[in-house]
Amino acid sequence: MSRTRKAAMLAAAAALLLSACDAGGQGAASGSLEAAGGSANAASPSVAASPSAAASPSPAAEPSAAASPAPAEPAASAAPAMSPKPASPKEEKKPVPERKRKLPSGFVYVDEVIPTAQYEIRYFTDYNFVGARLDGYNAPYAILTKQAAEALKEAHDFLAPKGYGLKIFDAYRPAKAVRQFVAWSKDASDQRMKEEFYPEVDKAKAFKLGYISSRSGHSRGSTVDLTLFERKTGKEADMGSPFDFFGDISSHGTPEIGKAPAERRALLKRAMELAGFKPYSKEWWHYTLEKEPFPKKYFDFDIE
Ligand SMILES: [Zn+2]
Questions:
Q1: Looking at domain 86-289, does it have CATH number 3.30.450.40?
Q2: Backbone phi and psi for residue 166, each to the nearest 5 degrees, phi listed first
Q3: Three-class SS of residue 28?
Q4: What Å distances lie between residue 273 and 158, 269, 291, CA to CA?
Q5: Site: Transition state stabilizer. Where (predicted)?
Q6: Among residues 283, 290, 292, 304, which one is catalytic?
Q7: Interval between CA 223 and ligand 1 midpoint (Å)
Q8: Ligand 1 centroid to 284 CA: how many Å?
Q9: Per-chain mean pLDDT for the chain
Q10: Does 157 count as an annotated binding residue?
């Protein structure tokens, strides 16, 4: 894929996010959980953060972007994702947003365990390969089993002195959302997100190729999709291909990416493996806790 084409897609994605924000309600999804807490103030930083969040995953976003102009930008995108009291070195607890329900036994909200990670729950938004919010995503929260969340915190802490933190795209995924993936893959008429997420893959083959499965490990509550953010700027790191891009470029060990993104993928992998997670060869962002507490149980409670 050419850089120009990527850049065009990028612009389209940013526009899409902006329009989603304009429409109201969706802004809270990208970036901060505080924004979802309902405060009017929280809404604007979140909107500001959206375009840059969309921009960063693509290799077309110039790696030097962080260093160049737009001095306001990094601060804007960093602020909502970090804890409200400006980044204290200790992970101080922040006011817990009101949660709508008690979680099933053994599950936790990840931001209550790792307040300084970033959260952009893509399936709560329409910026994902389906192009719509998924069933069961009633709020932009990352939920995991307690064991998985605590292991994830180890990875986050391991990365801190290296200048990185974890940014989470998805964690526990209700089984009903996975059923929605199945229905989506069978609907050949719906190609709205093809350009951006699966330009070279026939969506009907997404299952066979291993990009989606009819029962996802995510529904067992100990699997997470994530990337790195740079602590200095708060920006998402360039990992060589965007989250949820269906293609060989997303596999570990791909020769299609540069040295720096390859090193970042390796760093994330090392952090996750040290914390007890195993990688998935086809998706650099997908990790499952080795000793997951519910290895055979698939949950379907809503995220709220
Ligand atoms: Zn995943």
A1: no
A2: -95, 140
A3: helix
A4: 11, 6, 12
A5: 173
A6: 283
A7: 7
A8: 9
A9: 75
A10: no
Residue indicated by tokens 């930008």: 73
Where are the chain's structural domains?
86-289
The answer to whether residue 283 is catalytic is: yes
Dist. CA 143–CA 106, nearest whole Å: 10
CA 57–ligand 1 middle distance (angstroms): 16
Take residue 261 and report the two structure tokens written for it.
């993104």
Place 302 in a pLDDT band, splitting at 50, 70 and 90. Answer: very high
Which range of 6-10, 30-34, 267-271 scores highest in mean pLDDT? It is: 267-271
Which tokens belong to 286? 């997908």
Does the predicted model carry a pTM greater than 0.70?
no
pLDDT in tens, 39-61: 333 333 333 333 343 333 444 33
Give distance in angstroms: CA of 189 to centre of ligand 1.
25
Q: Is the CB of residue 192 less than 8 Å from the CB of residue 13?
A: no
Average pLDDT over residues 80-109: 62
In the 8-state DSSP scheme, what is residue 133? P
243 CB-side CA count, 13 A? 25
CA of 173 to the centre of ligand 1 (A): 9
CA angle 261, 171, 300 (to 5 degrees): 150
DSSP 8-state code for residue 94: -
The backbone region for 163, taken as left when phi is positive above 0, alpha when psi lies in -120 to 50, beta otherwise, is left
Answer yes or no: is 156 a known binding residue: no
The per-residue pLDDT for range 158-170, each reduced to its tens digit, is 999 999 999 999 9
Establish how many alpha carbons lie within 13 A of residue 196's alpha carbon, considering only the half-sphere containing its beta carbon. Answer: 24
Long-range contacts of 92-96 (CB under 8 A, 24+ apart): 94/34, 95/37
What digits encode the pLDDT tens for the residues 10-32? Answer: 444 444 333 333 333 333 333 33
What is residue 92's predicted lDDT score, i.e. its pLDDT? 53
